[in-house]
Each structure stands twice: as structure tokens, then as C-alpha cells.
Predict the 3D structure of the following.
Amino acid sequence: LKQEKLRFQFQERQRIREEIQKKKDEALQLKYLEKQRVREEKQKIKDEEKRLKDIEVKRQKEEEQNLREIGHKLQYEKQKLTETAQKLRELETERIKVKEDQILAEQEAHREKEEEIKLKEQLQKEKEKEQRAIIQKQKDEEEERKLIEEELKLKEKEEQTKLESKIEEEKRIEEEKERLRQWEIKFDEEQKKKEEELIRKFYSDTKEEKNYK
């Protein structure tokens, strides 16, 4: 009878341990499923944020391209207006030259003096033309430099934003791991207390049965 009783106690303890282990396994399974669900939700949010960000970047690039095209068109129109004005000036100069030639034909005595004046005017015009070309080249180079600087600034800002996002994500992941670790510790402590309580209760009931007999 004593052996039977010991065997029964052993089986009961074994059953309790199995139930405790089963509860632990179920809790771990639930925790794993919950973590899996949270990861999937976060991934969905991250994907959506990336999609929206890509759309915004594309929109900004399109706006920048439109601004560049508008600037180019304005510059081209300005250049054409300048060329037209130059042509008008040249036509006017040619008209004056024709008139002067007519005067020279009529006033042969002043021919050499008129030719000298004409040569000086031509030299002055070429000099002004060269100066305008130099100024225009400087403007074009300055504009190109500014565009390159803006592109570099945008690229640096984008890289900085990516880095900050990565750091923030790593920080968030670490905080999540720490919260889960603290939860597991708390859960294990509570589970251990429950297990100890069950064991104490079991031995207490066993002792009462023995005293009763």
C-alpha cells in the first residue's frame, strides 16, 4: 500500500509538472505568434511609409525638373531677344553705314576720316561683343555651380535622413527587445511562484491525508 501511495504521489507530481510545462509551451507559442503578428504589422507600416516617401521624392524630382525646364526656356527666350536686339542694332548700323557711304561718295574729301571713325566703331562693337560673351559665360558657369551645389545639398540631406531613420529604427527594436525581456522575466517569476504554491499545496494535502490515516 505504501508503494502504491508513493507511486500515486510520483504520478501526481509528474502530472503537475506536465501541466506546468504545457502551460509554458502554450504561453511561449502565444508569445511567438504575437511577436510574429507585430512584426508583420510593422513591416506593412514600413512598406507603406516607403511607398509614400518614394511618391513624394518622385513628385519633388518632377517639380525640380519642371523648374529647370522653365529656367532653361526663360534663359533661351532671353538669349533670343538679345540676339534679335543685336540684329536690329546691326541693321541700324548697316543702314547708317550705307548712308555714310552715300555721303562719302558725295564728299570724297572726308572719306578717310569717315573710314577711320567706322573702324573705331567696329572695334568697339567687337570689344563689347567679347565682353558680353565673357559675362554670359561667367553667368552660365555660376548657374551650373549653383545647380551642382543644390544637388549635393539635397543628396547630403537625403543621406542624413536615411541615417537618422536607421538609428531610430535600431533604437526602437532594442527598446522592444528590452520590454519583451522584462516581460519574460516577470512572467517566469510569477510562474515559478505558482508552481511552488502548487507543490506546497500538494505536500500539505499529502500530509493531511497521512495524519488523517
Summary: The chain has two helices and no strands. The longest helix spans residues 2-106.
